[in-house]
Write a structure and sequence with these properties.
Shape: globular
Order of helices and strands: HHHHHHHHHHHHHHHHHHHHHHHHH
Largest sheet: none
Number of domains: 2
Distance between the termini: 42 Å
Strand content: under 5%
Number of strands: 0
Radius of gyration: 26 Å
Number of helices: 25
Length: about 600
């Protein structure tokens, strides 16, 4: 146990060290002149060479790289984060972080409590009744919870902010608006604040239990040798990435000035020192979260070894029922041992699989033949027309959006764009996952743990951070004027391999687990087929989210961008954001449902032959 504790601490320090090194390397490669920006923020717009060199040395840019690195680390841990150069010129970054972070904490506390408590409970129930009706029902609820809130529901509401316009923030004491309102005697602000936070918290509270339920079910499904510290860290990293992008989306959707909005502003406005600081805070929170999760996992294994946790899991089941289920499972043919023909026949008989395939085939057909549903070509939907935000008409059955764009035409080409992006990303992830998965599986448990330990570093920074790093390296206007290929723009081609690489751990785990379970190649093929729809849904959801946040160009047809543009005129033209929101929901939910249908192979098992 003590060795595991020491290993967990060493792992946390290693992740933190590598993450800081990545941030430092990133700062070296960033474009622009941080010294000139710093001087301009302080009011010196045309500095002399003497003043410029003096400030350059004062900020540490004159020192050798190794000295500069250690000074960089020291500044990060001592809070010497310099000043903002564009978001709030000459204001200390530390003060901005201290003001914004409490809003994100307020947004996250209740959904986290609900998500962990409800998600773990539903995950245990789903795992205990694997393949039965209650398991299918819970999985469908999780698919709805993941795909429904952010676009189809939340996009129906206009940004509300966190206080009514007639109110101002209470004097800053703790950073929490609730506590500061109490301390300043302005309790009336609390009611207004809580009223504004109802919808953001509710939408987040729908997503969190669904995410935790899926991860809990997956965790309980694994054999004990697969649930190591490295695998738990990888799972925690994935969850952290989803939660981070969710917080950012909700803050942008509702106009909340929290840490997520500050993160977006830092990249959009190219605030050099703010970018460094937000990256460090994200890394630090990730390390703390993974350290806590690993410590809880060690405690969990101790309870398992002593038999305590088993009694908790089986509390509602008497011993005779459990022994009967165990005996039945030992005498039946398992999923991997069945033939591919049996697997395919069983799937065709599944209502979930049948419905999901109809939906998926529809989106595939739209992607291949978009002009069956719209008379407009890709070039025509990109051409500005008269009638911005016009209601539905015979020429435009679903209405018009910004710049007079036909909603139906942009919808069809947007579906094609999302599907093309998702398939390309999954292909990259599958190739990489096949390589690492075969290595991890062939070298038994030791190889598995080494490879899965290596996979941890794919999660050091959330996917949204990694996608935006090219923007920091090349500058905010580097992609303007670059050509598009088909319907994919330059930033899309940069984000495509990044998201694809981040899917490698998912496929690696799938393939390695199948090999360790001693299944044949057909069994491995089934496992890969089951994981492809899940990863497609992840890729499409992330792609739409990044488009919604405004990091793609206007010369592309991206559903997330159309949702964001449509919300500008939500009250007068609700159709402009509703239809692309529905399309994103439809694709994500369809692939999640297909994943459930493919996993749902609990056949009426026949006894194994002697």
């Amino acid at each position: 146990m003590y060795k595991k504790l020491l290993g967990t601490i060493v792992l946390a320090i290693t992740i933190l060290s590598i993450g800081i090194t990545i941030i430092f390397s990133f700062t070296i490669g960033m474009r622009g002149d941080p010294i000139a920006a710093y001087l301009a923020a302080t009011g010196v717009h045309n500095p002399s060479n003497e003043i410029y060199q003096q400030m350059r040395c004062q900020l540490g840019f004159c020192s050798p790289t190794i000295i500069r690195y250690f000074r960089f680390v020291g500044d990060l841990f001592t809070g010497n984060w310099k000043i903002s150069v564009s978001i709030a010129p000459n204001q200390p970054v530390y003060d901005l972080i201290r003001e914004r972070l409490p809003f994100s904490i307020d947004l996250s506390i209740l959904p986290m409590i609900i998500g962990i408590s409800v998600g773990i409970m539903l995950g245990i129930i789903s795992s205990r009744h694997r393949g039965k009706k209650i398991d299918r029902f819970i999985q469908i609820l999780t698919a709805l919870g993941i795909s429904l809130p952010f676009f189809l529901l939340v996009s129906r509401f206009e940004p509300t902010g966190y206080l009514s316009v007639e109110f101002t923030n209470p004097p800053f004491v703790t950073g929490s608006l609730i506590f500061d309102s109490i301390l300043s005697g302005q309790q009336y602000l609390i009611d207004d604040y809580l009223l504004h936070m109802v919808l953001p918290v509710l939408s987040f509270s729908i997503f969190m239990p669904a995410l935790i339920t899926r991860k809990t079910r997956s965790f309980l499904k694994k054999k004990s040798h697969k649930n190591s510290i490295s695998s738990i860290t990888a799972i925690t990293g994935a969850i952290f990435g989803y939660i981070f992008i969710s917080v950012v989306l909700i803050e942008v959707l509702f106009g909340l000035n929290g840490f997520g909005q500050l993160f977006i502003d830092a990249f959009l406005l190219y605030d050099y020192f703010m970018i460094i600081t937000v990256l460090f805070i994200i890394l630090l929170v990730f390390v703390i979260v993974t350290l806590c999760s690993n410590l809880l996992f060690i405690l969990y294994r101790v309870l398992i070894n002593k038999g305590h946790f088993k009694r908790i899991l089986k509390l509602k089941y008497n011993r005779s029922t459990y022994e009967e289920e165990k005996l039945e499972n030992e005498n039946v043919k398992t999923e991997h041992e069945g033939s591919f023909k049996e697997y395919l026949i069983s799937r065709l008989k599944s209502p979930i699989f049948f419905l999901s395939m109809i939906l998926v085939l529809f989106f595939i057909f739209v992607s291949i033949f978009p002009q069956v549903f719209t008379q407009y070509s890709f070039q025509e939907v990109m051409t500005p027309q008269a009638g911005s935000w016009a209601p539905p008409s015979p020429a435009h059955p679903l209405g018009q959006t910004f710049m007079g764009g036909d909603v139906l035409g942009r919808l069809m080409w947007g579906i094609r764009d999302s599907m093309l992006f998702g398939i390309s990303v999954v292909f990259i992830g599958l190739i990489g996952g096949a390589i690492f998965g075969l290595i991890a599986g062939k070298f038994n448990i030791l190889g598995y743990r080494i490879i899965m330990g290596f996979m941890i570093f794919f999660y050091v920074f959330p996917v949204l951070v990694l996608v935006l790093l090219p923007l920091g390296l090349l500058g905010p206007f580097a992609f303007i004027g670059l050509p598009i290929i088909g319907s994919l723009g330059p930033l899309t081609f940069i984000s495509l391999p990044i998201i694809g690489i981040l899917l490698i751990p998912n496929f690696t785990r799938t393939i390695a687990d199948s090999i360790l379970d001693e299944v044949n190649y057909k069994g491995i093929g089934k496992a890969i087929i089951r994981s492809i729809p899940l990863n497609l849904s992840i890729a499409i959801l992330i792609y739409a989210s990044i488009g919604f946040l405004g990091f793609f160009l206007d010369n592309q047809v991206i559903l997330g961008t159309d949702i964001s543009q449509g919300r500008v005129n939500l009250s007068q033209a609700p159709w402009a954001s509703f239809w692309p929101s529905l399309a994103v929901f439809g694709m994500v939910f369809s692939f999640l449902l297909l994943n459930i249908g493919l996993q749902d192979y609990i056949s009426k098992k026949r006894p194994l032959e002697n």
